[in-house]
Amino acid sequence: MAIEKLLKYEQDSRFPLTLSKSESRLYMSFISFAFIALFVGGLMGLLQVLVRSGYYTLPAGIDYYQVLTVHGVVLGLVLTTYFIIGFQYTLMGKTVGISDTQYRVAWLGFWVMTLGTVMAAITILYGKASVLYTFYAPLQAHPAFYIGLALVIIGSWIACFVNWRQLYVWKKKHPGEKSPLLAFMVVINMIMWFIATLGVAASVLLQFIPWSLGYAATIDVLLSRTLFWYFGHPLVYFWLLPAYMAWYAIIPKIIGGKIFSDSLARLSFVLFLFFSIPVGLHHQLTEPGVQTTWKFVQIILTFMVVVPSLMTAFSMFATFEISGRRKGFGGLFGWFVHLPWKDVRFLAPFVGMLAFIPGGAGGLINASYQLNSVIHNTIWVTGHFHLTVATTVILTFFGITYWLVPHLTGRKLTPSVNRLGIIQTIFWAIGMTIMSAAMHIQGLLGGPRRSSFSEYNGSEQVAEWGAYQVAQAIGGTILFIGIVLMIYIFIKLAFFSPKGNEEFPIAEEEKDAEPTPMWLEKWKLWVAITIALILFAYTIPIMDIIQHAPPGSAPFAWPIGNN
Amino acid sequence: MMKKKTLPNSSSQEPNLKGTIISVSIVGFIIVASWFAVFGLFLSR
Ligand code: HEM
Ligand SMILES: [Cu+2]
């Protein structure tokens, strides 16, 4: 009995901690901001597919590329970053807690980010920054756009510092213990984010801001693009890792199982940290001015990501199978049947996982040098990341929302909202299957991305694209209905659901699990290896780019950009 | 299997993961197959 109590103490008394009212308000501020972004960005997505179908023109002389900039910035940068930071704070709050000072600093981060977002948004709305979310030079936006971006980055760094501090303080209080799994994962993701954003921050502060203010007459285009993609690939892993946090450590609880392997989960996160950053050149395979050798080196490093990705896939299937067999479902695939299909907290992320199969396969195609030349800059690429970010990541985030928002607002996920959520998931699955498949095929037929409707003087090849563009409009419209449903669900969960106590599901390890080896906590070593890999992959190409730079480019504010 | 938590020696009871290994292999196969499909397209152009 005494021992049982002790075990119970080990298991329960530390976490999950409870979140205070004021904490919840902070976390909800981030998440609400994300849902506003979802609605605005989704509306732009709808306009894009309608325009590209050829049957609709934008009213009031609104420019397609302005709409596309809003879509990319608001969904790719704002929605994701706000949701992730908010969600990660809740994970830290639940597992290691937050102090009063940390709490105040976290609010500061929110306001710095929000000030930056508002500045950038205003420039975009006035048509002064139609430079798309990658803001490639020599397109030039209003300086306030770049200053706003810099503030968003700085605000997100504040979140990094708070999260690191939270774990540090916890570890001081619990010497010799392994850090809670979810806190470990959050800290890894924020280390990756911090190292990666140093690249864009350098480019924005040293290149774009002086150039847009007129202090520098020209800009080194290749350097700016290289620094962008040094950040751009880890950006996609910054989106994905929070989804993996939910898959590894939350979904098992929802399906009534246990964490498959705590060590495997941690190891895969460490590998993602290593191989997410020194790979940005795989976005620049057609770039002149970068040596083939270094593109090749970074492609090899890119393919290393297959290892933690398949580890994750294995771990998910194993969690499902073990918990199914334990409930008495035998056979090769009997365990599949037991999964809680009618629970939207499971169904939405599960559909996200499925989307990652074609998403991941497409990613490896994109990263293969020769195959990249088949799909580069075609709408295939857009089809690819609407599977990965806009389905895998977003549906997992929706899956989190169903329990996290009521948990934070002191309400319940009701059966009717659950049912609506299932319908939402189905809409998303159908809409995205149609839109993304049509984009993939049109891309293989040579259809370009980032382009408004055009008949290109009636060329023969272009005639092949029409049907697929119409299909994208149909799929995109279904998706937009999904977005409206989701906004309704969010508002309902945040303000109108009955009061109650919704569970914050955090899975536990098996009682007899192998202990996690302590070497997984060698933070300094992980950071050192990460930096070494980056120096190896980037030093020579960047030196080459700087030394052999052609004359810099003067700004282009027209035809899109700033007019 | 048993529902009550027992504490067996961790090595004595490896879970049955046949379905998992088959599922992951299917995923691997899809990846390789789609890669070669696009590779075929590359060669044919
Ligand atoms: C109603 C749902 C959506 C529709 C109809 C839609 C449609 C589109 C289309 C047609 C494009 C390409 C336009 C072009 O290249 O000319 C695009 C680009 C993009 N979408 Fe979506 N999308 C939707 C949701 C999302 C979501 C949820 C995300 C992210 C979480 C997202 C992220 C992006 C990004 C980052 C781009 C790239 C923008 C660029 O190339 O500058 N989209 N979307
Ligand atoms: Cu990438």
Description:
The complex is a heterodimer of chains A (563) and B (45). With 563 residues, chain A is mainly alpha-helical. Chain A contains 19 helices and no strands. In chain A, 72% of the residues lie in helices and 0% in strands. In chain A, helix 2 (21-53) packs antiparallel against helix 3 and helix 9 packs parallel to helix 19 (523-547). The longest helix of chain A is centred in the N-terminal third of the chain and has 33 residues, at 21-53. The N and C termini of chain A lie far apart (75 Å). By secondary structure, chain B is an all-alpha fold. Chain B is built from one helix and no strands. Chain B has one helix at 18-44. At the A-B interface, helix 11, helix 13 and helix 14 of A face helix 1 of B. The site of copper (II) ion (CU) has 4 residues of chain A, from helix 7.
List the helices and strands and how they pair.
The complex is a heterodimer of chains A (563) and B (45).
Chain A (H helix, E strand, L loop, with lengths): L1 H12 L7 H33 L10 H32 L4 H26 L17 H31 L7 H32 L8 H29 L1 H4 L7 H15 L15 H12 L2 H21 L7 H5 L5 H24 L1 H7 L3 H31 L5 H30 L15 H4 L2 H31 L26 H25 L16
Helix pairs in contact in A: 2-3, 2-4, 2-18, 3-4, 3-5, 3-15, 4-5, 5-6, 6-7, 6-9, 7-9, 7-15, 9-11, 9-19, 13-15, 13-16, 15-16, 15-18, 16-18
Chain B lengths: L17 H27 L1
